[in-house]
Design brief:
By secondary structure, the chain is an alpha+beta fold. The protein has two helices and six strands, in the order E-E-E-E-H-H-E-E. The protein has a six-stranded antiparallel β-sheet with strand order 2-1-3-4-5-6. A hairpin with a 6-residue loop joins strand 5 and strand 6. It is elongated and about 55 Å long. The termini are far apart.
């Protein structure tokens, strides 16, 4: 079973937020209004059912954030908090169907309990810090670029070590 979720959120300059969800495949939303940031999301997840047991398979959530340098500068905190909130469902960690399955490297593993078994899964705090750090760096790179319109692309999946964000100049 595969699930694909496509979502676009516009972060307007006047701090209003509007959203649109779709379960149908579609292209990215273009930033047609120069006074807004457009944040698009595509999420995929696989569930494996075998021998009357359900397992979480691989999953990825890709975000695309498009806007002008000025809008990135003034919306950085809102962009970061929106994505952290969306990916982790941080008001209730148990509401995210996948975030509890994000793996960490052995060197970053959470401490073991009395059994001596190390927890291979990232904590909510580790996930938030990783996303915040990657987004901050990419937004700073975007703000310091030589172009007026930029896109930041992020990919978060089931391994904290391969979370990534990059910024790219766009041509009008």
């Amino acid at each position: 079973m595969s699930i694909v979720v496509i979502c676009a959120i516009s972060l307007l300059n006047n701090n209003e937020t509007s959203g649109q969800n779709s379960s149908e495949a579609g292209g990215p939303v273009a930033a047609s209004n120069q006074s807004q940031i457009v944040l698009s999301k595509v999420a995929t997840a696989n569930t494996i059912i075998t021998n009357k047991t359900v397992f979480v398979g691989g999953f990825d959530t890709d975000y695309s954030i498009t806007g002008t340098l000025t809008n990135f500068k003034y919306s950085e905190d809102l962009i970061i908090s929106s994505i952290v909130e969306d990916f982790t469902k941080s008001e209730d960690f148990t509401k995210s169907p996948t975030v509890g399955y994000v793996m960490v490297s052995k060197s970053m593993s959470n401490s073991s309990d009395m059994t001596g078994i190390t927890n291979p899964f990232a904590s909510n705090e580790q996930i938030k810090q990783k996303i915040q750090g990657l987004l901050s760096k990419s937004i700073d790179d975007a703000i310091n670029s030589d172009t007026d319109l930029v896109e930041v692309q992020c990919s978060f999946g089931n391994n904290l070590d391969v979370f990534s964000c990059s910024s790219y100049p766009l041509v009008r």
